[in-house]
Design a protein that fits this description.
Elements (H helix, E strand, L loop, with lengths): L18 H8 L3 H6 L18 H10 L5 H8 L5 H7 L23
The structure holds zinc ion.
The site of zinc ion (ZN) has 6 residues, from α3.
Length: 111
């Protein structure tokens, strides 16, 4: 392993995570990390178990991110239109635009 392979790492302070800590942070089973370790960024010191820094975890997140085509289209929109594209999405409304339903009445008391 050379420094070249750590280009994705921006850690200023060394704070490596164990399998259990990395699994907890990613909300995955430790077993999944162990089973897939050959394909996942990690550090290995001799015969000791692999360790991960948060940059390794971010890279794992990126490797496992599922982006539906619609999300990809929003991300691919020109930068100047990003805000416009987001506000155009019908499901996203500002809190100020949400008004209480009209004509709401107290439930009629049962006599
Ligand atoms: Zn790092």
């Amino acid at each position: 392993m050379t420094g070249w392979t750590r280009r994705h790492c921006t850690c200023v302070e060394v704070r490596n995570l164990t399998y259990d800590e990395a699994a907890a942070a990613l909300r995955v089973k430790r077993r999944w990390l162990e089973d897939n370790i050959r394909c996942l960024p990690h550090m290995k010191f001799g015969g000791q178990p692999a360790v991960f820094c948060h940059c390794d975890l971010r890279l794992i997140q990126a490797m496992r991110t599922v982006l539906p085509p619609e999300a990809q289209r929003v991300l691919d929109a020109p930068t100047t239109d990003d805000q416009h594209a987001l506000t155009e999405m019908p499901t996203i409304r500002s809190l100020a635009s949400i008004k209480p339903a009209q004509g709401r009445r107290r439930a009629t008391a049962v006599t």
